[in-house]
Design goal:
Length: 74
């Protein structure tokens, strides 16, 4: 039992490390792009485009909450 628990903890840590490494890689790509001037402004129009894309994605998964679900009202 203890060996299995240790194996699972080690496996979980390895997955976490891979995710962290991938995140660091993605951040470096973004920094490199910004240093080359390859960026756009982050304004209300960009925020709404992101929200719209997310809503479409969630709607496709059947996970889009209604405004009453967000507010806690029934």
């Amino acid at each position: 039992m203890i060996r299995e628990g240790l194996r699972l903890l080690r496996e979980k840590d390895e997955v976490h490390q891979r995710k962290l490494q991938a995140l660091r890689h993605d951040i470096q790509i973004g920094l490199d792009q910004a240093n080359r001037g390859e960026h756009s402004s982050f304004d209300e129009k960009a925020i709404e485009a992101i929200r719209s894309k997310g809503r479409k994605r969630l709607a496709g998964q059947g996970k889009l909450k209604t405004s009453t679900e967000y507010s806690g009202r029934d």
